[in-house]
């Protein structure tokens, strides 16, 4: 499906760039309100955001769009993406919106939309919204007293903190644990430290001084040097690195080593399997999850299903199959017993519950499998469809033949940037390096 605005995770791009202007945001609000109108009278819309400077601009424009079609808007302020998903259901809203570009730098921003059930919209619904955005919506605008109202809603952060705490086992606490929390100068800066502290941990917070332009800069789940150094410096038991909107997490063990989403899935899934909580003994991941995780699950008797990259595709498959754990290597972990989307704070709490229950160190709990060597490189292109070029197709087929059954090659366009992502993994590290470099050269020549 060719789409003009929506990508893998909503609409995203440089603020005041082609797809992320106030006009676009206003039209998103108008079109979404029209397409998803579900109740008589005014709709209820909740809008949360991260800490980017452009969030004020886009929030105001979205409010204008939604109120123009008769919806009442409740602005939540800076708050994690999973909190918006939760509050959409809790507040009986028709639509939840997050203004965030997740792990991207501050110059980008984005718009993610949840339905009344707290799940991200399907491709087909996004296509309806796109079609309406480029049409004349003036006949469907509200008039006079039917125009909606916009209100700032207080107390929502406290509601999310209490919600997160309730997912932790009642008989346990984090007493005695020293936790470094890196909030990426993003949406969780006022909630994540409180969650861990109120559960008993000694909390050292970093990345909690947002200024509108420092989100994800040298901090958070995509820039781990700072938190790794801090964990070693203060001799912490664990580090929790969130991204800008806190829907993903990377864990740092007490040695300063990185624990990615695949290892987290292994820990949580095995724990839930042993306590008879793992629905249908199945975990949903994406095509990017490491072959080592696949082998680990095979050894545990756990079925692993793969989807396209994107946590919403994971969530869709979980709903279809009735599964309750899924996620991505990047740290999106979806625990549908609690929530409808990736939640970095809840995933960290699940890990800490296993640590507390076992009495072992994080490094001992989290090293469940040996990663198969995996290489991922990006090739930027200027237009066209390089993956449809015959020399590229031939090169991919040849690379797969050389690798044989000893690994995997995954090549896909990015859903948020003009990049081709080339990944190979296998037991022969030298071979996969060679194959990825060769494929990057061929793709680059036709991009």
How many β-strands, per DSSP?
19
Number of helices: 14
Secondary structure category: alpha/beta
Shape: globular
Strand content: 15-25%
Indicate the radius of gyration in whole angstroms: 22 Å
Please, what is the average pLDDT? 94
Sheet having the most strands:
7 strands, mixed
Alpha-carbon distance between the termini?
Answer: 21 Å
- Low-pLDDT residue intervals, each spanning 5 or more residues: none
Helix content: 25-40%
Q: Order of strands across the widest beta sheet?
A: 1-2-6-5-3-4-7
Description:
It is globular and about 65 Å long. Helix content is 37%, strand content 21%. It has helices spanning 22-35, 54-68, 81-90, 123-133, 156-166, 192-198, 225-234, 261-274, 291-300, 311-321, 344-358, 362-366, 390-403, 429-445; strands at 6-7, 10-14, 44-49, 72-78, 95-99, 108-114, 150-152, 178-182, 202-206, 238-242, 249-253, 258-259, 282-286, 303-307, 325-327, 333-335, 374-380, 407-413, 419-426. It contains 14 helices and 19 strands. The protein has 447 residues and is α/β, with parallel strands linked by helices. It has a seven-stranded mixed β-sheet with strand order 1-2-6-5-3-4-7, with helices on both faces. The protein has a five-stranded mixed β-sheet with strand order 9-8-10-11-12, with helices on both faces. The longest helix has 17 residues, at 429-445.
Summarize the structure.
With 447 residues, this protein is α/β, with parallel strands linked by helices. It has helices at 22-35, 54-68, 81-90, 123-133, 156-166, 192-198, 225-234, 261-274, 291-300, 311-321, 344-358, 362-366, 390-403, 429-445, and strands at 6-7, 10-14, 44-49, 72-78, 95-99, 108-114, 150-152, 178-182, 202-206, 238-242, 249-253, 258-259, 282-286, 303-307, 325-327, 333-335, 374-380, 407-413, 419-426.
